[in-house]
C-alpha cells in the first residue's frame, strides 16, 4: 500500500474507511521527522503489512487529527483499528512502529 497524505479534511473518513491504520504525525521543522520519513515510506510498501493503511499527517496543519491521537511530541505515531485509536507513541524507533503495527 502506498503512503497517503491526510489532512483534517479527510482524516476521519480515511480512518473510518480502513480497518487498520498507522499514522505518522510530523512537522516541517522537525529534523527527526524528516529522517524517519524514508523508513515510514519503506514500511508502507512492506508486504508484511498488507491490509494496513499508512497516513502521513502534518501535525501543525491538521490540529483536529492531532487532537484525536493525543499528539504530545514529534514524531508521533498512532494506530487506529476500526475507526478508533488503538495506540499512540512519540518515538523514532522503527522497531517500536513495527510492534505497534503488528499489534493491530
Can you say what the CATH homologous superfamily is? Glutaredoxin
Quaternary organization: single chain
Please give the number of β-strands. Answer: 5
- Main β-sheet, in a few words? 5 strands, mixed
Strand order in space, largest sheet: 1-3-2-4-5
Write the element-wise H/E pattern from the N-terminal end onward: EHEHEHEEH
Termini, distance in Å?
Answer: 16 Å
- Described by the principal axes of the CA atoms, the overall outline is globular
Number of helices: 4
Q: What value does the Rg take, in angstroms?
A: 12 Å
Mean pLDDT: 96
Provide the low-confidence segments as ranges.
none
| CATH class term | Alpha Beta
**Tally of domains:** 1
> What's the CATH topology label?
Glutaredoxin
CATH architecture type? 3-Layer(aba) Sandwich
Question: In percent, how helical is the residue content?
Answer: 25-40%
Strand content: 25-35%
The structural class is alpha/beta
Name its key features.
37% helix; Glutaredoxin; globular; alpha/beta; 5-stranded mixed β-sheet; single chain; 104 residues; 30% strand; 5 strands
Describe this structure in words.
The chain has 104 residues and is an alpha/beta fold. It has a single domain (3-103), classed as Glutaredoxin. The protein contains 4 helices and 5 strands; from the N terminus they run E-H-E-H-E-H-E-E-H. It has helices spanning 11-17, 31-44, 63-69, 94-103, and strands spanning 3-6, 20-26, 52-58, 76-81, 84-90. Strands 1-3-2-4-5 form a 5-stranded mixed beta sheet, sandwiched between helices. A hairpin with a 2-residue loop joins strand 4 (76-81) and strand 5 (84-90).
Amino acid at each position: 500500500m502506498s503512503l497517503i497524505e491526510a489532512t483534517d479534511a479527510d482524516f476521519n473518513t480515511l480512518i473510518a474507511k480502513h480497518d487498520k491504520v498507522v499514522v505518522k504525525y510530523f512537522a516541517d521543522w522537525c529534523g527527526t521527522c524528516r529522517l524517519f520519513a524514508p523508513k515510514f515510506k519503506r514500511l508502507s510498501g512492506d508486504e508484511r503489512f498488507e491490509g494496513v493503511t499508512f497516513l502521513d499527517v502534518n501535525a501543525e496543519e491538521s490540529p483536529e487529527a492531532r487532537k484525536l491521537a493525543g499528539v504530545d511530541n514529534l514524531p508521533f505515531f498512532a494506530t487506529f483499528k476500526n475507526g478508533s485509536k488503538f495506540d499512540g507513541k512519540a518515538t523514532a524507533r522503527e522497531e517500536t512502529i513495527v510492534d505497534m503495527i503488528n499489534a493491530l
